[in-house]
Write a structure and sequence with these properties.
By secondary structure, the protein is of the alpha/beta class. The chain is built from eleven helices and twelve strands. It is globular. It binds ligand PBG.
């Protein structure tokens, strides 16, 4: 229970807000570069850094440039980088076999980063959308996304990522049973130390638009993802998904998108106490970066405020495209 507070004027809550020193003493929430996972887009080629027009300041990087980014992340104190491949449309197929090709872009980038900056944790994404001619995270059969056949493919994809050296695997597909299936495969194949960061509460969101552009998956996408991603109004269902994924062997859970879903972050942390992350997604980034570019908001202040809010809501960390910019500011 809340201790009783003396009435005004004995209690003046502005006393602790008067100077920076006093404010620092009573600060409840701290933000450090150690709170960030930096998502980066990988493409083929060499020496390439290609701007993504709906995400000002974010580029698709060739593997050599991703390695440079990884070095930068490590120097800034960012503990992890997360890879998303922009796949040549010619490699997209019905069976999505490129997803478990040991030589695919994601696996090449993982190996290159682990060779150059072994201390940096590499996270990879499990879902078929970068490789699927339909743009979906799972197989489409007769107008339906099929669950169990998709899970078999996701298991192969996850194994190829672990073989390439991924430290953290992030299933973002929202199929049922994939965490358990991937966990058993990793155990059986000697990858018992690979972490699973489950995109457990992932909502069918309009805020993923710029990401789908970045990945070249928006043109391809047939229909929407509502048969596997959640209804934005469902909070109890989010708790059931988180509980389910933890029970199947997820080490950490994610809520996605972030800012419109801080109540879900808070509930997840309070109800389960597991390491909890939010994904400040591409559309959130675009809103802040776009408004800042036009001078409508102070970009740096809005960025830091949004990131602090995730910590206040109970998140242990945030996947954010702002990671390097925020870390630079924090490091002074
Ligand atoms: C799909 C995936 C998406 C994102 C990460 N993984 C998009 C989607 O579900 O359509 C979105 C990330 C972002 O918007 O920044 N597997």
């Amino acid at each position: 229970m809340r201790p009783t507070q003396a009435p005004f004027p004995a209690t003046r809550l502005r006393r602790t807000r008067r100077t920076p020193a006093l404010r620092a003493l009573v600060a409840e929430t701290t933000l450090t570069p150690g709170d960030f996972i930096w998502p980066v887009f990988v493409r083929d080629g060499e020496g390439v850094s290609e701007p993504i027009h709906s995400m000002p300041g974010v580029n698709r990087l060739s593997v050599d440039k991703v390695v440079e980014a990884a070095r930068e992340a490590h120097a800034l104190g960012i503990p992890a980088i997360c890879l998303f491949p922009y796949t040549d449309p010619a490699l997209k197929t019905e069976d999505c076999a490129e997803a478990w090709n040991p030589e695919n872009l994601s696996n090449k980038a993982t190996r290159a980063i682990k060779a150059a900056v072994p201390e940096l944790a590499v996270m990879t994404d499990v879902a078929l959308d970068p490789y699927n001619i339909t743009g979906h995270d799972g197989y489409l059969e007769d107008g339906q996304i099929v669950n169990d056949r998709t899970v078999e493919a996701l298991v192969k994809q996850a194994l190829s990522q672990a073989d390439a050296g991924a430290d953290i695997i992030g299933p973002s597909d929202m199929m049922d049973g994939r965490i358990g299936a991937i966990r058993s495969e990793l155990e059986a194949r000697g990858h018992e130390n690979v972490l699973l960061l489950s995109y457990a509460a992932k909502f069918a969101s309009a805020f993923y638009g710029p990401f789908r552009d970045a990945l070249g998956a928006s043109g391809a996408l047939k229909g929407d993802k509502k048969s596997y991603q959640q209804d934005p109004g469902n909070a109890n269902e989010a708790m059931r998904l988180i509980e389910r994924d933890l029970s199947e062997g997820a080490d950490m859970v994610m809520v996605k998108p972030g800012m419109p879903y801080l109540d879900i972050c808070r509930r997840a942390k309070t109800e389960f106490g597991a390491p909890t992350f939010a994904y400040q997604v591409s559309g959130e980034y675009a809103m802040l970066a776009g408004a800042a570019e036009r001078g409508w908001i102070d970009g740096e202040k809005a960025m830091m405020e949004s990131l602090t809010a995730f910590k206040r809501a109970g998140c242990d960390g945030v996947l954010t495209y702002f990671a390097p910019a925020a870390a630079r500011l924090l490091n002074g």
